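Q: Hi! First time asking for a complex rather than a single chain. Here are the components, and I think there are two in total. Is that enough to go on?
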Amino acid sequence: MTLPMGRPMREIFGETVAQLASEDPRIVVVDGDVGSSTRADIFEKAHPGRYLQMGIAEQNMLGVAAGLATMGLIPYISTFVSFAVVRPLDQIRVLIAQTGANVKITPSYAGLFTGQTGMSHIIVDDLAIMRAMPGMVSVAPADDVEAAAALRWAAAYAGPCYVRLVRDATQRLFDASYRFELGKAVVVREGAGIALVSTGSQTPRTVDAAELLAADGIDALVLHVPTLKPLDVATLVAVAERTRRVFTVEEHTVIGGLGGAVAEALAEHRPTRVDRIGIRDVYPESGPNDALLDIYGLSAARVAEQVRTLVRAG
Amino acid sequence: MSDTTVPAAGPADAAEVARLEEVARRIRVEVVKAVDHAKAGHLGGPLSAADMLAALYFHVLRIRPGEPAWPDRDRFILSKGHSSIGLYAAMALRGYFPVEELATFDAARSRLQGHPDMTRLPGLDMSSGSLGMGISAGMGMALGARLTGHDVRVYVMLGDGECQEGEVWEAAMAAPRYGLDNLVAIVDHNRLQQYGWPGDGPDGRLPPQVPGELVGKWRAFGWRVLEMDGHDIAEILRVLGEAARGDGRPTVVIAHTVKGKGVSFMEGRYFWHTRAIKPEELAQAMADLGEPVATGEGGPR
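A: Yes, that's all I need. Here is the structure of the assembled complex.
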């Protein structure tokens, strides 16, 4: 039994920010010529005067957003994760994170699902970079429901934030009653044997992996961590105390992201063995989504297989 | 007369010009004192910008030093953030903070950081120091003023070396798309950068831009281009006055300046971009700037 499919987070982006803009005149969208991909075009249709095309010039785009924020506006950034994080990284650091600018960095095309584009568009270290940057909070929603909630939360949050969205439809984990809370991890599956800690749209696949493991007699709790910084250390420690062993699972490099954050926190607060499942120190290739999940060991079956092997190895 | 020259208006108010010239002289004195005191900081750039900073902070900008966050103030971004001490001197003299505080420039826990930090010093409209960024932030402010209905002008000062940064030309490409005639860029064209390419220029280095090319570059991107002598107060007032009269395009003013202006042995020498001053050099600098050297305990601040 696997979780059902939800809607693509990028469509949720266009619709949610358009709705927010109807409620709040300060909200604008700043686009780097990919509005038809990120679905900022939905926003543009609803609020043409507040859709700000910046062309193919991401460094300037982030700088303009910082300037707009000083005038009391709330810019949401529309581009791909690769072009939102690393290309204008210094602009984010100097003009946005350091100054506390009220800019919402909300790119789409996170992780492996980039429409068969290849290594230039697949960035596997965005969460590590944004987590390390002083003054920045980063959010990786699990599904369309949480994406909408996080985008809405971002409008009310006074400061810079990074919300990482996915291009294609992914599985739905939450129902409409879900409430996003910054810095709060959520147990999405109870279990008493091991803990699988996951983030972003990997979490639903990790829940499915837990179901597969249950058939093998491995009782796995699944903890969803939407916010890598601030990290919910208390919940993490409580989960580590309730289970024998912790695994992290992420559609991201195992260096510096969720695996790094969890290992750091547990080493300091409750030394626990942590095995990190995710993308190893490589640049992924292009291919269909399912093929990439298989290659990089992130499908439910491949996650279950790796956990099973590690558990049996002791 | 080239087509970027602003025609002479009526005679500038001589008293106002003299007042601003004295402000510029005092900015230069404070710059040299502060850098000498800190044994760190840039000299050449702040000195080339001093006359323009005097004109901006004491005549052009609509600002309230006692209310630095006044929403309807004009904005100023020192995109060439390494000239921070020039900006701090202008702000202190204008009343944003005590002139004595300039002695804390570059010191630990100072509000006067080596490069401008808007989170520390009220009155700074943007942090800067990583070159090329101020023009983008300024474009965002000008666009934001338009969207929020604020009659605000945004002035951004860049270096000519800074115009080597790609981001400058991203902003140059984008700003005319929005017809931001409330945006005025000023390029401090002092013809030197920190080190530069080797060649036949002063001290064996080439200028950062091929002479004359900046005008054509900015014009090709769709900007209104004006030129001025960045050390002639009357001309600065005339040209910035013209720049404030929007014609549907953003305006860039190419300001022809001399790096290290006002201190004889610094003028036009690339190695005075940033350098500690020796005691005998300080005396010469103060003499050049018409400032008596303080004597006695502690010496000049």
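A: Chain A touches chain B at residues 28, 49-50, 52-55, 57, 59-73, 90-91, 94-95, 98-100 (CB under 8 Å). Let me know if you'd like any chain examined more closely.
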